[in-house]
């Protein structure tokens, strides 16, 4: 790459900068692909890899949410209801569902809710990239959303049509989707992606191509197609997209914090602003991993040991944490909010 091309590449409307975003968009896709290659050669490694994903990314990414909620006085004050009000409600509702229906119900809710959660996170990130390049040509309104959600919807319909009755070794109820409907959704998704690609080519010919946003959208289509359509094993497919989602979330939260504290150490949030300074990503990760150990291995483990017994209780406890996380994320990461746009430095309102 010549010096001129490198300079042009560095000047693209990145979310943070060329190095960070290249890793964020392309590098994170490489992790699940590497895992897929390993599992293709040695399927017996699924459980060890799953455990690594949970402890290094999954639990850690839930903890990252709390750096947004509780690590400084202002955030804690603004989110008191989310922290103290929603938690007991989620716990009570989850407990009642299990009491009246069984573990299979929350496993099913988790399977479908996490799909929606993954899609919505990707949507928010795509809006961030879109908001960074207002002069580019884009699809708008319902057509824009149809293109974005086509592959995720086709994926979950395809997975449902398979009628899997187990997920990660637990009983699962799959929505009874006729194969004909799933196939139709796949053809619609393929058509919309091809139309999108043609529109991107036209935008490039007009000199109005949103290069970074287009690159991200391509990886979005790829990972949802891989996780829910091309990989036939429900567990392996889920693991691929779960790894991508978790790693993406962790990096996005850290990037958000770096933008929030771009002026240096904030006296009202000394600790969070310190670990969120450029060059301190490792500090941030180590703090979150340490808290993960305290919360998941220490607190939740102690609660499970003192008050419950068996695998079922552990599943319920962990799903309470997951469901709370899904609700919280839907409230605090809306890109349409002016405060979010200001922190992220968006030059236009990308909409929802």
Q: What is the strand and helix layout of this fold?
A:
Layout: H1 3-10, H2 18-41, H3 46-69, H4 73-78, H5 80-100, H6 103-131, H7 141-161, E1 166-167, E2 170-171, H8 179-205, H9 211-230, H10 234-260, H11 270-275, H12 281-307, H13 311-332, H14 338-344
Antiparallel strand pairs: 1-2
Helix pairs in contact: 2-10, 3-10, 3-12, 5-6, 5-13, 6-7, 6-9, 6-10, 6-13, 7-8, 7-9, 9-10
Structure description:
- The chain has 352 residues and is an all-alpha fold.
- The chain has one domain (37-344).
- 76% of the residues lie in helices and 1% in strands.
- The chain has 14 helices and 2 strands, in the order αααααααββααααααα.
- It has helices at residues 3-10, 18-41, 46-69, 73-78, 80-100, 103-131, 141-161, 179-205, 211-230, 234-260, 270-275, 281-307, 311-332, 338-344; strands at 166-167, 170-171.
- The chain has a two-stranded antiparallel ribbon with strand order 1-2.
- Helix 5 packs antiparallel against helix 6.
- The model has no long low-confidence stretch (mean pLDDT 85).
Number of domains: 1
Helix content: over 70%
What is the overall pLDDT average? Answer: 85
Q: Widest sheet: strand order? A: 1-2
Number of DSSP helical runs: 14
Give me the strand/helix succession: HHHHHHHEEHHHHHHH
Poorly predicted tracts of residues? none
What portion of residues belong to β-strands?
A: under 5%
Distance between termini? 37 Å
Radius of gyration: 21 Å
What's the β-strand tally? 2
What structural class do you assign from the helix and strand content? mainly alpha
Main sheet?
A: 2 strands, antiparallel
Looking at the structure, what is the overall shape? globular
């Amino acid at each position: 790459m010549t010096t001129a091309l490198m300079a042009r590449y560095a000047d693209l409307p990145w979310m943070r900068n060329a190095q960070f975003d290249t890793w964020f968009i392309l590098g994170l896709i490489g992790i699940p692909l590497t895992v897929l290659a390993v599992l293709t050669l040695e399927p017996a490694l699924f459980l060890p890899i799953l455990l690594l994903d949970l402890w290094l990314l999954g639990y850690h990414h839930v903890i990252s949410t709390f750096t947004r909620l509780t690590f400084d006085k202002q955030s804690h004050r603004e989110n008191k209801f989310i922290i103290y009000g929603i938690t007991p409600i989620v716990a009570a509702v989850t407990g009642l569902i299990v009491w009246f229906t069984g573990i299979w119900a929350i496993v099913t809710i988790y399977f479908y809710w996490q799909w929606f959660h993954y899609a919505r996170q990707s949507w928010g990130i795509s809006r961030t990239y879109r908001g960074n390049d207002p002069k580019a040509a884009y699809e708008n309104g319902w057509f824009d959303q149809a293109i974005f959600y086509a592959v995720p919807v086709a994926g979950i319909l395809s997975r449902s049509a398979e009628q899997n009755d187990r997920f990660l070794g637990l009983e699962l109820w799959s929505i009874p989707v006729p194969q004909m409907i799933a196939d139709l959704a796949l053809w619609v998704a393929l058509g919309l992606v091809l139309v999108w690609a043609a529109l991107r080519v036209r935008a490039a010919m007009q000199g109005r191509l949103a290069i970074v946003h287009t690159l991200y959208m391509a990886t979005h289509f790829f990972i949802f197609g891989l996780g829910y359509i091309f990989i036939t094993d429900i567990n392996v497919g889920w693991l691929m997209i779960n790894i991508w989602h978790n790693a993406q979330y962790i990096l996005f939260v850290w990037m958000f914090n770096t933008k929030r504290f771009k002026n240096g150490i904030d006296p009202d949030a000394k600790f969070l602003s310190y670990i969120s300074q450029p060059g301190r990503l490792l500090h941030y990760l180590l703090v979150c991993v340490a808290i993960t150990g305290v919360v998941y291995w220490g607190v939740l483990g102690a609660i499970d040991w003192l008050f419950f017994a068996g695998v079922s209780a552990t599943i319920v406890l962990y799903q309470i944490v997951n469901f709370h996380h899904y609700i919280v994320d839907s409230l605090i990461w809306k890109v349409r909010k002016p405060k979010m746009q200001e922190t992220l430095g968006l030059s236009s309102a990308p909409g929802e």
